[in-house]
Specification:
2 copies of one chain form a homodimer. By secondary structure, chain A is mainly alpha-helical. Chain A has a domain of 95 residues: Winged helix-like DNA-binding domain superfamily/Winged helix DNA-binding domain (Arc Repressor Mutant, subunit A). Helices cover 55% and strands 4% of the residues of chain A. The first copy, chain A, contains 6 helices and 2 strands. A two-stranded antiparallel sheet of chain A has the order 1-2. In chain A, helix 1 packs across helix 6, helix 2 packs across helix 3 and helix 4 packs across helix 5. The longest helix of chain A is centred in the C-terminal third of the chain and has 26 residues. Chain A is elongated and about 65 Å long. Chains A and B meet through helix 1, helix 2, helix 5 and helix 6 of A and helix 1, helix 2, helix 5 and helix 6 of B. The first copy, chain A, binds a DNA duplex through helix 3.
Chain lengths: 147, 147
DNA sequence: ATAGTTGTAACCTTTTTGATTACATCCATA
DNA sequence: TATGGATGTAATCAAAAAGGTTACAACTAT
């Protein structure tokens, strides 16, 4: 199975707000047009990012803005903010037979390994800040985006 | 989202065959009783493990046996054998708007990071051999399992 | 007041998993 | 060589999760 696209949608959302913030009113509809999903999906994403203290959303008048230093937001933070993985990454079969020596011990045998693997993945996400992505984006997109 | 339990089921299956091989006929039903899933699920698992060259299954008479040195089987090999993750671990939103500087570049920005994260997770799985798990299992289960 | 937005519930569809049933095929052996 | 126990595999089913979509109340700048 794959990790939900909420994660990449959320990163995309932050980058749109960053790049267009100030020059445009970054409404859910505007962002949705860049991500190409339903505006409600973006609103839900913004709620998560707001709960994580990354953005602020103007209720009636519209528009989102970033309220945390992008140097202090890693991909891992975004990944967590939108609950990309609920608890454990690996899905265990739930009722191994406790009357079998394998069934009785399989959890003890695997839990640590699997947790290590998950942690290794998450630690990679911690290495990347939104600031570095934003910087790279600016270079790729050229100094003055127009779309 | 979570990675399919096929993975932990497959590891469990191999360990049952290892621990009881020789003393019992490890049929799909016997293994299913330890894992606590439907025997057909085990048969499908065994087909995957067979295709990966890890086990041999006696068609008519029944029973599976391990045909590869457990030192040469890592958790990663099992993970691959049962297609735990099909391609990319992270699910990307599929149609970002190419007319937006963010939509146009989001893939280029994230693909490497996400691939690194996935690779880090998989590399952890490569560190663990079935032989080490089997050894640990023997210790935990005591020298002479009876169930 | 109004027009444009957000917050949020409700519902639907699609996809994926795994459970289950069913049965043809296979094979050791009695 | 008939048979009983297994496997291989297709066909369904149901449950869970993710997104898409509609709808609308509440909010706010003007």
């Amino acid at each position: 199975m794959k990790i939900t696209s909420r994660f990449t949608v959320a990163v995309h959302t932050l980058l749109v707000i960053y790049l267009f913030g100030g020059r445009r009113k970054t409404t859910s509809e505007f962002i949705a047009d860049s991500v190409q999903v339903n505006p409600v999906v973006i609103r839900r994403t913004l709620l998560s990012l707001k709960a994580a203290g990354m953005v602020e959303v103007k209720a009636g008048s519209g528009g989102a803005s970033i309220v945390k230093d992008l140097n202090d937001i890693t991909l891992y933070d975004v990944y967590r903010a939108v609950d990309s993985v609920e608890g454990e990454l690996f899905h265990f079969h739930e009722h191994p037979n406790p009357d079998c020596p394998v069934g009785k011990n399989i959890h003890a045998l695997l839990d640590d390994c699997l947790a290590d693997a998950q942690r290794a993945m998450e630690n990679e996400l911690k290495k990347v800040t939104l600031a570095s992505l934003a910087e790279e984006l600016k270079q790729k997109a050229g100094g003055a985006p127009s779309a």
